[in-house]
Specification:
By secondary structure, the protein is an alpha/beta fold. The protein has 2 domains: 4-119 and 378-434, Rossmann fold, CATH 3.40.50; 131-371, Rossmann fold, CATH 3.40.50.720. The protein contains 13 helices and 18 strands. It has helices at residues 23-33, 49-54, 100-108, 131-152, 171-188, 206-215, 228-234, 249-252, 264-269, 304-312, 378-389, 393-398, 412-415, and strands at 4-7, 36-40, 58-60, 68-70, 85-88, 112-115, 197-202, 220-222, 242-247, 253-255, 274-276, 287-290, 321-324, 346-350, 355-358, 365-368, 418-421, 424-425. The strands form 3 sheets. The chain has an 8-stranded mixed beta sheet with strand order 3-2-1-4-5-6-17-18. The protein has an 8-stranded mixed beta sheet with strand order 8-9-7-12-13-16-14-15. The protein has a two-stranded antiparallel ribbon with strand order 10-11. A hairpin with a 4-residue loop joins strand 14 (346-350) and strand 15. Helix 4 packs across helix 6. It starts with a strand and ends in a 12-residue tail after the last strand.
Length: 437
């Protein structure tokens, strides 16, 4: 069945309302490329069935005969059919144990898997991602958590009226609300006990840029990491601003050997010879927004041991909220011991007792670690993603998947993202054999 593609409904959780292709782009694929598009019916999708049918898509419940199926998140094992092509975020390339059974099922059925995460340009940069949207939603959730925590402490603050991101109609509505909060800050300022209110951003990539886009709506001023100590010493700060510090790798780690100098590429190639120095900044921060991709080879940036020391001091810590947008469980932020969800977005970590409780009441730091943040702004996330995906769809739809992988006529960027081809791991991903049992 040539030139037919399908879009399955997302059902990983009740919050997942995103789509890989929006109705407008489906219309263009139908009219300009003569594709037939099937869309599986969904009651929660941000774009309803009717929006797709109006543009010429066919609404179908049974997708079993569709040769190529696009999705966003992982697909349940019962959905897979023999010799079908699936394109989605599989979360398998690190050998993630929780998805190895899914991968094995696809291999047993001679399926082909194309993973969005591995679609990159000539410079090796990802083409399809939700990083900026994760940052946008994560910043809103972090500011909401700050408002709720300060309210619990009995401190009046303008963030107390902010809602969680998913409770707004769209991102524009969120920005309007934050702009109003900014006007309040500019006019009335913060409680003197909170001044200066400093927000640190760990990282500067797409996630950080999205978070800063929201933050920058507020009246703010940038402090360089090396100037923080002087900034506090001079006391030349305002109650009518919120201060921003952006931390890059050179601010966060240093070589273990005093004889060596920091070099970015060397840090990426040899993370084991570096140590974290990031904790020296933590006492100055009211908010920490973590936007850094992390793997276990790299040093942790905030340890539970350090937080215990901080909370054991005579002076109450300034740190109220950690917005762990990266959400690497027990990763760069060690106290992120679990991910959270929009209905239970935060937990409180008590460093003295090394315990967590859901919510934000008690002694400790509030941690926001929602692991599916882009779904909270589903319209904008879907539009952004679909815009990047659409150009690849015609070539995928018209490819002959009966050919050998070497002769498969997929575009180079897509071919590099093929993890399994007709049930077998492709050459770039043969290392994954040790994970599939």
């Amino acid at each position: 069945m040539k030139n037919v593609v399908g879009i399955r409904r997302e059902d990983k959780n009740i919050w997942e309302r995103r789509v890989p292709l929006i109705p407008l782009h489906v219309k263009e694929l139908i009219q300009k490329h003569s594709l037939e598009v099937w869309v599986q019916s969904s009651k929660i999708r941000v774009f309803p069935d009717e929006a797709y049918s109006r543009e010429g898509a066919i609404i179908k419940e049974d997708m079993s005969s569709c040769p190529i199926i696009f999705a966003v998140k992982e697909i349940p094992m019962h959905f897979f059919k023999k010799e079908t092509v699936y394109i989605f975020f599989s979360h398998t390339i690190k050998g993630q144990p929780y998805n190895m059974a899914m991968l094995k099922r696809m291999m047993d059925l001679n399926c082909t898997l194309i993973d969005y995460e591995r679609i990159v340009n000539e410079q090796g940069l990802r083409i399809l991602f939700f990083g900026r949207q994760a940052g946008q939603a994560g910043m809103v959730e972090t500011l909401w958590a700050l408002g709720q925590r300060l309210d619990y402490e009995g401190k009046q603050n303008p963030f107390a009226t902010l809602k969680q991101a998913y409770k707004y109609r769209n991102l524009s509505s969120v920005k309007d609300e934050i702009a109003e909060i900014g006007r309040h800050v500019n006019k009335y300022g913060f409680d003197s006990s909170l001044v200066p209110l400093v927000c640190g951003f760990a990282g500067y990539g797409n996630v950080s840029q999205g978070a800063q886009e929201i933050f920058d709506i507020l009246p703010s001023e940038i402090i360089e990491p090396g100037e923080i100590e002087k900034f506090f010493k001079d006391r030349n700060y305002s109650s009518n601003k919120i201060y921003k510090v952006i931390f890059q790798e050179e601010h966060m780690v240093e070589p273990i050997s005093f004889e060596d100098k920091f070099e970015l590429q060397d840090y990426y190639n040899n993370p084991q010879i570096y140590k974290s120095i990031f904790e020296s900044y933590i006492p100055s921060l009211t908010i920490l927004v973590n936007c850094i991709y992390w793997t276990p080879e790299f040093p942790r940036f905030v340890t539970n041991k350090f937080l215990k020391q901080l909370w054991s001091s005579n002076c109450p810590p300034r740190l109220r909220v950690i917005g762990d947008i990266s959400c690497d469980v027990e990763g760069s932020i060690e106290c992120t011991v679990k991910s959270t969800s929009p209905d239970k977005p935060v937990f409180l970590y008590n460093p003295i007792e090394n315990k967590i409780i859901d919510g934000l009441k008690g002694n400790g730091v509030v941690v926001m670690a929602i692991d599916n943040l882009p779904a909270e702004i589903s319209i904008e996330s879907s539009e952004f993603f679909s815009h990047s995906l659409e150009p690849f769809v015609p070539d995928i739809a018209k490819a002959d998947f009966s050919e050998d992988f070497k002769n498969c006529d997929l575009p180079p960027a897509i071919k590099k993202a093929v993890i399994i081809y007709r049930g077998k791991l492709t050459p770039d991903y043969e290392y994954m054999k040790k994970f599939v049992k």
